[in-house]
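lol so apparently i was supposed to do this last week
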Amino acid sequence: MTETSKAPVITIDGPSGSGKGTIAKLLARRLGWSILDSGALYRLTALSAVKQDVDLNDPEAVARVAQNLDVEFRSGQAEQPVSVFLMGEDVTEEIRTESCGDKASQIAPHTVVREALLQRQRDFRKSPGLVADGRDMGTVVFPDAPCKIYMTASAEVRAQRRYEQLKQQGQSVKIAHLLSEIKARDDRDMNRENAPLRPADDAVTLDTSGLPIEEVLQQVLQIWSTKQA
Ligand code: DC
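anyway here it is w/ 2'-deoxycytidine-5'-monophosphate bound
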């Protein structure tokens, strides 16, 4: 085992809108660790497949896209989000659309696609540590992580958060539509055969409904400190 593969990992899994992405970023910044946004890799694979006219229902073809993904994550200044480049093109905003998220969820059940992305995700692990955000970080990608969090919130709270987020980005959507999309995506992510969304046996579950971000962050830091003791 290399030094790098022994670097600690805090995994944060959960459904979209649970707050895991925001917490993962704050946590990584607070600890001075790297971050893996694994959902972005599924979104990038879906986007790249669409751009290359690859059929999303053809697992082998999509897996080839995943294998050859030419992607670069560029960190911005302190408060700036990470920029994402696909074949040199800035797709930071494009991968965040509902449509891209939906396509990512469509390709995610394919075993060959998940396998194609596995090592790429593990390569993010380096000293002094990694915060890994996704659906199967604690169950499949980093099963030996010393600290695993499963973050959740009611579908209604998650739809409201997503609505606010999209409104801020100038996108107009109906909340009822978001709610039904969130429920459909949950259903697909939780009931797929391969690496379904579920808490790892040794994960701590945090329900963030009604909790301010700073409070959630404090709880996660508290959990991490108990794991180190
Ligand atoms: O977290 P997100 O919304 O960016 O993820 C988009 C989709 O990618 C999600 O619906 C399921 C899939 N995904 C996955 O299957 N495994 C992961 N570790 C991360 C995301």
